[in-house]
Amino acid sequence: MASKPVHDSAFEAEGLRSHYISSLGVADVGNRVSVCGWVSRVREHGEHLVFVDLRDRTGVVQVVAHSSVVVRSEFVIRVSGMVSKRPTGTENPSLGSGEIELVDTDIEVLSSSELVPFAIHDRLEVDEATRLKFRYLDLRREKMQHNLRMRAKINSAIRSSMERQGFTEIETPLLWTPTPEGAREFVVPSRLHPGASYVLPQSPQIAKQLLMVAGFDRYYQIARCLRDEDLRADRQFEFTQLDLEASFVSQREVMGFVSSAVMEAASVAGVAVTSPIGEITWKDSMDRYGVDKPDMRFGNELVDVTTIFSSTSVKALNSPCLKAIVAPNPSLLSRSKLDDLVDRAKRLGAKGLLWLKVVSADHGVQLESPVSKFLSDVESQSLVSATGAVAGDVILVVGDEWMKACQILGQIRLDLGKDQADSSEFRFVWVVDFPLFEGFDEDGQLISAHHPFTMPNEEDFSKLDSDPLSVRSQSYDLVLNGWELGSGSIRIHRSDIQSKVFSLLGIGSEEAKSRFGFLLEAFRFGAPPHGGFAFGIDRLVALLVGEDNIREVIAFPKTQSGSDLMTGAPKEIDQKLWDLLGLSVKPQKKDLS
User: Fold this and answer.
1) What angle do CA 13, 18, 21 make, to 5 degrees?
2) What is the domain class of 9-111 according to CATH?
3) What are the respective helix, strand and coil percentages of the chain, to the nearest 5?
4) Which H or E element spans position 143?
5) pLDDT tens readout for residues 63-111
6) Which fold has domain 298-417?
7) Which uninterrupted H or E stretch holds 303?
8) Tens digit of pLDDT for each residue in 513-565?
9) What is the DSSP letter of 492?
């Protein structure tokens, strides 16, 4: 079994390897094979033998070699050997190839490796900064291999779904013109047009609407998008989304297109999802969950208890709206924890948070609370009945304007309930009937809740002048386990409605021409009714593979501060390049502290 370089003409004709490791099994016993990969572990066994665990992208196999073999972890090797059944009692059921090993082996070192900064296995917790600095090593780990390969399968499933539904994949430009979509854009100075710049697209929004004008009935793209925004667990500067648009469709049809795509994605990820995807209106979502992206994997819904305390003598309960929830895991809420919750509510903008422990809920309700002695029996009984609380429960109440009360208690619900959510459950939900306008700015102008091309609900056209804040839009969000995957809308294609919405937003004809000129011009040449949607593939994949940060499903992500620890980007640009672009850089003030 002496090791020597392999020069086996039978294998050279086919390449360096004859098999992937996962394809080998008991049926191959007695056959000579060639496999390639990285050394995971080396174990000495007596004076003459070593055992090498060899890893490729499909699995691990045990290689029995002579002690003269000089390899260590992460060496890249080629092994030619005989497939043999492992001796009884030495099988490894945790490996797909655990019943076999390679014997009578010849080993060729294809590439040596220095000592790696961390072990390449998932059992070891590694600091994220180290992982990102040596990302090419981190990506060798089984979890990262699984995540990125699953991402590829999900992309493939999405493409298959869209193509079956009659969509055409069309690429849109990465060098684009500034668009008014809300987030900051990355700017690309032009060498050929000094002083002028392109921007990197936040999304293909306007481009895909132009494709509808161009007659491409159903468009889709797995699009790269870029936004210069603050980063967090579900945000990166660069992200990928399924972007689609279709002509002559209703809101319900667009939602159907997207539902089919995410169902196929969930299926290839081995995730069971209830079909069809349910719906909830924006108003009901805020009322019941306090957010417009509800996590429906646990209960403890918000209850309106305003009318119960309409005549109360308790000052803290004199509010336009009172919302209550029954806290999950009340046994964990000590007095100090309750005080912490009150502080948390105040940080969220509440005037306070009232807590009431239910001591008895049978014959004669008894509540323990700073205000319990000021409540009437009817108020106490009604509160317990309305919330469904039982003895031992803790009821939490927030009072304020409707929206604020919902938002504050909704966040408290999420804070307390995140440990209640079943990580193996996947609850998609469509949120529909969003407001067309979200309020007024400091100048008294209406603010668009989505974008100024969102079609109002036809039933609410008559309210555009009389009660604009009650107008619902034909927009819709897809939510999964409390994460907004994406949003879309039916677009305005009628000039009279577009003029009315622009007017309500305080956008005059000159401003509209300046901001949206080329799109409005295109609409003059026969724009079909159309609508679309875009959802974040990074977010979808992260949830389907059980990750809570999208960096775990992106090959080369940025840190929370937007840095690339592996390449050192962003870096200072050489002055020669600035000169070529006709630009100068404003010197930064030095910190003299």
Assistant:
1) 160
2) mainly beta
3) 30, 25, 45
4) helix 142-164
5) 999 878 899 999 999 999 999 999 999 999 989 999 999 999 999 999 9
6) Gyrase A; domain 2 (3.30.1360)
7) strand 303-304
8) 888 888 889 999 999 999 999 999 999 999 999 999 999 999 999 999 999 99
9) P
